[in-house]
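User: Run a structure prediction on this.
Assistant: Running it now.
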Amino acid sequence: LVHEGEEACDDGNDSDADACLSNCVLARCGDGIVRQDLMRMADVGFENCEPELDNDGEHCGWDCRRRRQPRRVVVGDDGRCVLHEDRVWCSGQAGNARGRFEPGPLTLTPAGLEGLVLTNTKHGYFCVIWDRQNASCQPVLYANEVTGISAPEPLVDINYGARSSSRCTLSIYGRVRCWRPENPVPRQIEGLENIIAISTHEEDGLAVDDDGVAFAWRGMGQAQAIPNLPPLKDVTVQLYHPTRAGLTRDGRVIDLANGQVLRGLPEATTELVTNGGASRCALLSTGAVYCRGSNSQGQVGNGTYVDQRSFVHVVGLEQVETIAGGSGGFCALTDRQELWCWGRLRYPANGEIVPPAHCSNQQWGGSYETWYCNRPTRITGHPLP
């Protein structure tokens, strides 16, 4: 019995885990108590985290649903972009004459956008979500090739690739919808529910659900659970071995094919990223970065161009807050908001920028120079220090 004017609800129990708290107040996101009576992320009022709680170190969204930490940096084929104060800033091949940071393509979209979410890059594309349900994708630094995306549900992530690869979105309700360039009508991937993270490459897709179970699918086919794995919180898929890797809830990086831990990481991992080809990088809880895999362009960042079968320390980086990978290599943003990148960097061939000693210089196309940097290189310019 609800006493009008005195109680908002009364369910006759003293539980704080359902829709009505023990003090007869309706449960809401942000009340500091995780609601536990709903099982599906699509249910109205579902919660599996609270922003003010620890949440076992996992990111908690505005809707009290766990998901991957929002990206602040993306790496494309020839450029890099940073989300800073609700604007996207980019540098690279199509940057200004000195290859430094200038306002990115988002300055060409309608003014007043807030709450931007920067999402995954594939083949040099990056996507931005605004107003939670609208998004646009485009090649890094090319504002004349923008593709708009409207979704039936608020979005938290987009995996968008060029050519004939699948393109997928993840909604706050844990649903994954994919489409192909030749058939642009999104279709929900069967077998996926309560998903908190996705990763796609060409036709391969991976996902993790709220229970930490990993799923795999190809193209537009039905997803299947990957058996005999510990609970995960993130996954990455790439072209070469190991094609599928996962980040466990206790910070280990494993090969999803056999569950074995990948060697070389001395501390727990908080972020795991791939360049989509044959290299991966891990951000440790200490703020250090370790990478492994193909190193022909210096993308492992250890001062050599020798491939690494185990994770090795990226030299010269400390207090890193987030990392990103793409076909151009990898980047790290430090707690001082400094952006450092390694692998392939491209700048105008005007003689005004001299590559550091740790970068091999190679002419590309006459008007741009390609540098292969085997150690992190500072990317300067507004708005970064």
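The radius of gyration is 22 Å.
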